[in-house]
Write a structure and sequence with these properties.
20 helices; Rossmann fold; alpha/beta; transferase activity; single chain; globular; 51% helix; tRNA(Met) cytidine acetate ligase; eight-stranded mixed sheet; EC 6.3.4.-; 3 domains
Length: 414
């Protein structure tokens, strides 16, 4: 049996995702598919549009065989840590043959070259990175500039536009997947699939595909008719079912009052303890939190060339879920500690049996069963997922008390 793995968000599952799934299975000649999917919060520092069980149902109904949750502590991180968390968990299953990911370039060679530079960190590259950071540029832009200069020296007549490659988000994620595979010496083989259609944050249609961002924006007024022809019918029915049940989709502005409370009452040292914060950034956050009553305006006024939007949004999400750098370092060293099932079809159940035979990690299907494993590391990581779920449903502003939903929801089985 050949198993293909994906690291995903499916927020929501659209035609681009379906194309990627089909092309990956075709290229790998795969028999089974596993998606490791972020749950209640996302890599860009935003809440998931819909709950994680609805996303899992979409994925299974559209052809994925097994959906596992990428824990919050990695799902809401930079591209490097997001990729590492997904790859490390996938590798620990001990049954995955291929990791397939979408990229704008659709080729492995230039991505592998960049990945090698980032892993080896030659002196010239490090000096250039330091130089560009000293100019006040963001880490990602500084890194891109340093890599471009280094490659121009060692390969003056190279055929690729590395500046363009490093400016595209899916290429960057692909590079980080390759870095992670190399770091843990994984035997999983990478496959790069060229993306077709809109970029992930594009607001327009391209080649008949709409990005997840465009889809979310089109139904912000809760009218699903706008996207009926833009998503697979399985996705449409799932969104319809979700909206009938919960009455609202989730956006970062849904937490406006909570963020205002946090930023106006928090002690400065608590902000200084967050992952990826730099000296002085906490003052900027507090100052803007006092001047504005809208979280989007607060973030707009914090971002600079050095501090991009996604980085600032992640800081707020970590603050929301009480994840600081010391806690993350502790949990990083004992990760992964479990496998959490969100959805499966009949083929996925076969995969779960294979995982049980080949992996030493406990498999959680019913949430309450985590206590039986008596693992301190497992509980510490899982509590962030549980809290993230509670916070997610808090953002829906429901008249019902949507708490402890991890206990009440079971994996979707088709």
């Amino acid at each position: 049996m050949t198993v293909v793995g994906f690291i995903t968000e499916y927020n929501p599952f659209h035609y681009g995702h379906k194309y990627h799934l089909e092309q990956s299975m075709k290229k790998s000649k795969g028999d089974y598919s596993i998606a490791i999917m972020s749950g209640s919060f996302l890599q860009r520092g935003e809440p998931s549009f819909i709950d994680k069980w609805s996303k899992a149902k979409m994925a299974i109904d559209n052809g994925v065989d097994l959906v596992l949750e990428l824990p919050f502590i990695f799902a809401s991180q930079s591209a490097e840590l997001f990729a590492y968390g997904g790859v490390k968990l996938m590798d620990s299953l001990n049954i995955v043959d291929f990791l397939a990911f979408g990229t704008e370039i659709g080729e492995l060679e230039p991505l592998e070259r960049i990945s090698s530079i980032l892993s080896e960190e030659p002196n010239f590259y490090k000096e250039k990175l330091k130089y560009y950071l000293s100019l006040g540029l963001s880490y990602s832009i500084s890194r891109s500039n340093a890599i471009r200069e280094y490659i121009n020296i060692i390969l003056p007549n190279n055929q690729y536009d590395y500046e363009k490659i490093l400016a595209q988000s899916n290429n960057i994620l692909g590079i980080e997947y390759l870095k992670a595979l190399n770091k843990i010496k994984s035997k999983i083989t990478p496959i790069a699939i060229k993306r077709s259609g809109s970029h992930y944050n594009d607001l327009h249609l391209s080649n008949g595909f709409a990005s997840a961002t465009a889809i979310r924006n089109l139904i912000k007024n809760k009218d699903l008719n706008h996207i009926k022809d833009l998503v697979p019918i399985e996705t449409y029915y799932c969104l319809e079912e979700y909206l009938n049940k919960y009455k609202d989709f989730n956006y970062i502005e849904n937490y406006n009052q909570i963020f205002l409370y946090l930023i106006r009452t928090i002690e400065k040292n608590k902000l200084q303890s967050l992952i990826d914060i730099e000296n002085g950034l906490e003052n900027r956050m507090i100052a803007q939190g006092s001047k504005n009553n809208n979280i989007k305006k607060i973030i707009d006024n914090i971002i600079t060339k050095r501090y991009p939007r996604t980085r600032i949004q992640r800081l707020f999400i970590h603050l929301l879920n009480q994840l600081d750098k010391n806690t993350f370092k502790e949990l990083y060293n004992c990760y992964p500690s479990y496998i959490r099932v969100l959805g499966s079809n009949k083929k996925g159940l076969i995969l779960l049996n294979k995982i049980k035979e080949n992996s030493s990690l406990p498999i959680i299907t019913k949430f309450a069963d985590y206590k039986h494993f008596k693992s301190e590391a497992l509980e510490k990581i899982l509590i962030f997922d549980k809290r993230a779920t509670d916070i997610f449903f808090l953002g829906l502003n429901s008249s019902n008390a949507l708490a402890n939903m991890d206990y009440y929801n079971s994996p979707y089985i088709k």
